[in-house]
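Q: Sequence in, structure out?
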Amino acid sequence: MKGRGYYIVIIDGDKKITRFLSKKLKEVGFTVRSVNNPREAEEAINEQIPDVILIDLSFKDYEGNSFISRIKSKPECSQIPIIALSGSFESLEECDFRQLLNLNDFIRKPIHIAEVLTRINTQIKIMEIQNRLKQKNKELMEKASRLEQAVKTDELTSLYNKKYILEMLGAEIQRSVRYKKPLSVIMLDIDNFKSINDTYGHLAGDNVLKQVAEIIRSSIREIDLAGRYGGEEFVIVAPETSLNGALRLAERIRYNVENTRLHLDNKNKNISATISAGVRCKIPSKAYDISKETKPLIDEADAALYQAKRNGKNRVEVFIPLEKRQHAERNSKLRMYPKDFYRRSS
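A: Exactly. Output:
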């Protein structure tokens, strides 16, 4: 193997050895810097990270063993191969055991250039293999991350998909029960979406879906979860959010959609759209089977969404549990909903 520009730092107090090694290594293409003590070597390494370090083990205390530890302790230098140069194996025995662990190879003096080249090239090969493995591992991790993301996101809108949002809702119900915090679910639907598709085409409809999804994403908090539930319907799970907080969130999204001109295609065609929303807020009870709590929350928010549609669209409605509706009706404090809404919501 030729040097191919690899950078070698040689540290030896014997200038004859450093001159000899520098000359021979440069002849085969290595870039070489030779110094006569570890202090100079540290300065050289700070200026440019070498690919391999050759160091004489005759340096004592701070200048020798601790130098190796200091270099290896730096994250950018931790993987640099260090090859020891020594006149005898006894010098290895004098080294601290921790320093020996930091050595990658050992060359006994007197030095033979063929052996030096073999040892250096072996370390470079190992380093290249390790780098390839690291790169491959990085690529595999990135691919796994993309696959994981694809499994839980909606391809068109990049929001969470229905399956994942329901899984996360189950987890948030458990947290809500544990910490006795309110949990809100908001169902959103783009009004008159079928007419958008019929009038402008499905590509325009897809553009509207993506832009509404972006409005939702920019309107919620980091802890909120937003997903595409299906078609033109979206769902938001808002942990630790009271009814008033959920109403403000739903109204903010409704307002932002209504006041945004949505692009249909590349010809600068824009339209206005509106959404309707249904809100359900509760603190799930321990008496409920957690696995059976998810669907009722979704259904109840959907029932409120249905009512928003019936009441004229472009509005937010709240799901009122049956017992609260009956109590309010007895006290004439709540306007009457159609009976089919009671049956749907109860």
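Residues 332-346 have pLDDT under 50 and may be disordered.
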